[in-house]
Amino acid sequence: xxxxxxxxxxxxxxxxxxxxxxxxxxxxxxxxxxxxxxxxxxxxxxxxxxxxxxxxxxxxxxxxxxxxxxxxxxxxxxxxxxxxxxxxxxxxxxxxxxxxxxxxxxxxxxxxxxxxxxxxxxxxxxxxxxxxxxxxxxxxxxxxxxxxxxxxxxxxxxxxxxxxxxxxxxxxxxxxxxxxxxxxxxxxxxxxxxxxxxxxxxxxxxxxxxxxxxxxxxxxxxxxx
Length: 225
Prior knowledge:
This protein has a seven-stranded antiparallel beta sheet with strand order 1-2-3-7-6-5-4. By secondary structure, it is of the alpha+beta class. 32% of the residues lie in helices and 30% in strands. It is built from seven helices and seven strands, in the order H-H-H-E-E-E-H-E-H-E-E-E-H-H. Strand 2 and strand 3 (81-95) form a beta hairpin.
């Protein structure tokens, strides 16, 4: 219900201003399942609201050094050893009360990302970047992504806007420990399949989830006491 009792749609910020990141983003459950995450790391999931986190315009759910499937190397000489993989993920939603504000914010975020990539000093191979591919771009008014492989793993940054909401996923994961040892991979995804899934499936589904919560009202994304 709008504050004035009308049927007109109200801005996303007005509804989501006090939302808690991990509550609204379902504790990153879809990412946990798709990537085979076995533990969220020492700090667990970190949930922030607006403006509680490093991104003062967005609510976030973040995992640092979450555990990915491990590879057990068996050897009678050196003994069995387990090599684990890890991932860091940051999912955020920046709601606004107009499409214009959101479009401006999207542009600023893309500029910041490209500047960071240009000046960060990391060299990437197999780079894919630009607007989302056609099979994923139709969901959004604006979109941009950059994926590339470094010496230590894969990094993906994806930013998208629909109406007055900007969403993003920043994720990286270490090299598959089994592949590093010359064995078959233990990760249930590849760089290509992971990128496609984030752009084509995860981001659109997450947007629909957030919009469904918005329809329930201002308390839908607020953490339980």
